[in-house]
Write a structure and sequence with these properties.
Layout lengths: L6 H7 L7 H14 L4 E5 L2 E6 L2 E8 L4 E5 L20 E5 L4 H17 L6
Antiparallel strand pairs: 1-2, 2-3, 3-4, 4-5
């Protein structure tokens, strides 16, 4: 069952590629299942997820996949080797589909980002 989406996410989903809407909805729901205290706002045209005012994750629509991004992606260990990027802080995971195994890897990656969150400063 799909959780009720915040209005800001619903509006954003109306503008993304129709073929990615379900996957992006699943990723939104995954984020808030892992961290129920996430608040979401549009930043730079994409949903940005924060806890206590600290932005930690974002979703983005790309042509062939979607991003689950981490503002502090360079500050935590990527145990599963799924995080891409070379920026000073920003990293992302390219998501094309979710199965149980990949979803568990994403959960652990989100948890790693949350654990490192207290060390991240904007």
């Amino acid at each position: 069952m799909t959780d009720q989406l915040p209005e800001v996410v619903q509006g954003w989903l109306e503008k993304v590629r129709p073929e990615h809407r379900d996957l992006l909805t699943e990723l939104h729901n995954l984020l808030v299942r892992v961290e129920p205290d996430f608040s979401v706002a549009l930043k730079w045209g994409n949903p940005a997820y924060s806890v206590g005012g600290q932005m930690l994750s974002y979703l983005a629509d790309q042509s062939d996949y979607v991003h689950l991004g981490f503002y502090n992606g360079a500050q935590f260990e990527d145990r599963h080797g799924i995080v891409d990027g070379t920026g000073k802080r920003l990293r992302h995971v390219k998501v094309r589909a979710l199965d149980d195994e990949f979803e568990q890897k994403l959960v652990e990656t989100i948890e790693a980002s949350l654990a490192a969150g207290s060390e991240y400063s904007s």
